[in-house]
Amino acid sequence: MHHQNRLPTIKNTNKEQRSDSLDLPTNRQVVRKETSQSSERNVKSTENNSQANQRIEQKYNSSSRTQNKNIQIQDEMNSHYLRQKTDISSHKFKLYPVINEYQHQKNNHQNKQYQNLDEVVQDTIDIQQNKKYQTLDTQTERNQQDQVKRQASLQQNKDKSIKPGRNLKGIRQFAGKAENLLTNFYFQNKWLKKLKSIFQAARALCRIQILVRPKREQWDMAISKEIDCKQELSFNTTVNAIKIKQWCQMVFTKAFSIIQSEALDDHKLNFIENQLSPLQLDHAINMTTQVFWYFMTSFELFTNQKLFIREFGLIMYKDLFEDQRKFFSKFVTKRTYYLSKRNKIITDEQKVMIYSESIIHNLLQGLMLSVNNPKVINMNKPNSIFLIRVLITLLQYLFMKTFTELPIINDLSGNYKLIQFKLTQINKKDFALQECIQVEKEELIIGTYRMDELSPLFSKVSWHSSIKKCFRRILNNLFLYKF
């Protein structure tokens, strides 16, 4: 039996129908306002779009033709296949050439389709770029329109603004506004300056308070300590006087032992008032320097922390305060301010100067007590008087030489009771330090020898430097003493 094969029916669509059904770029109508600036760019974009549309139509026409050819070839193959089935003799013929030709056509058709697709993609890219250029043109047109509107609004505002010179009322308004602005600015600036000054004053007060607080605390501690010293010294004055006298005797013990030796009775030591031979002069200088060196070494020893008595420490600290002092020396007062409510702090150098002045004054007062006691020393000998005067002169010389470099800061305009002491002999027996109200020189003690008269002693350079160093160590002991 012969079966009837149903062949697929293919509808052949015309080119006109497809072009109507597809939404091609040829059928789209773009409405756009042309401007004077973008006219040339729009012409170029339209030409590019028309060329792209023509290419697309050609590709579609070629594709439709190839499809028709394929349909004809398929019909021929189907008819040939039917003939083969119906007629046995047809088996003798070979079908290979037909099949090869069909595959070759099919491959060519696929290659053309790929090429057509690439061209379509390139055309779509060109169209998109043309659209971008169109959007840029529209943006520039909008920006130009906005600028024109702004310029027009600014021109209108200028026309509406007050023009001084044309209208008196406008001039008055303009002047009033300017005056108000100036007054507001001046008022604000004035208040800002006031606030700034107030802030600076508050800041300065805070700084002053920070700086004054430790000084106030230090002053309060000094006052409380000064009150304790005063109470302790006034508690038992007789005992304190005995302790001070004994301490002074111990300081002068070594020096007195040489002064009282019988070996000195046969020699003249006063090289200032007497004319001595070179040998006698050398012996007198050696003995004088030895006596003073023994005194300085014992003085250094007894100012040590262990051997220094507390009563001297209390007297030294009390003499730092202006209202507790009994007298003021010209040399010291010119170089320091004593502690008071006006001056609550003094330097360490000034403190050491006041300490040493207090110790030297009390030490010489104890020396006078020892000299006037025949059991301690016999002052009827001329050598003893000479050596005591030399000792006082050299001690005062070291004190003034050490502190003469301190600057003069006090003009002595305050109510200072300046006193000077004079070494004198009463009734040709007793020695004393008398107070002199009329102060002419800076020396604490007068009635001693001049420094040029003692120049032979300073010819010994090593001895001179050694006594200076020893006096420095004594000052250091006084400064470091804690009671």
**What is the number of E strands?**
3
**Overall number of structural domains:** 3
Mean pLDDT: 75
Outline:
elongated
Spatial order of the strands forming the largest sheet: 2-1-3
- Pattern of helices and strands: HHHHHHHHHHHEEEH
Low-confidence parts: 1-40, 80-98, 161-166
How does this model look, in words?
Residues 139-149 have a biased composition (Basic and acidic residues). Residues 1-12, 36-68 have a biased composition (Polar residues). Residues 1-68, 136-165 are annotated as: Disordered. The chain has twelve helices and three strands. The protein has a three-stranded mixed sheet with strand order 2-1-3, covered by helices on one side. The radius of gyration is 64 Å and the shape is elongated. The chain has helices spanning 15-21, 39-86, 96-160, 168-235, 237-251, 253-259, 278-302, 310-318, 330-333, 348-371, 382-403, 461-480, and strands at 420-426, 430-436, 445-446.
Features:
single chain; 483 residues; mainly alpha; 12 helices; 65% helix; elongated; disordered N terminus
Layout of SSEs?
Layout: H1 15-21, H2 39-86, H3 96-160, H4 168-235, H5 237-251, H6 253-259, H7 278-302, H8 310-318, H9 330-333, H10 348-371, H11 382-403, E1 420-426, E2 430-436, E3 445-446, H12 461-480
Parallel strand pairs: 1-3
Antiparallel strand pairs: 1-2
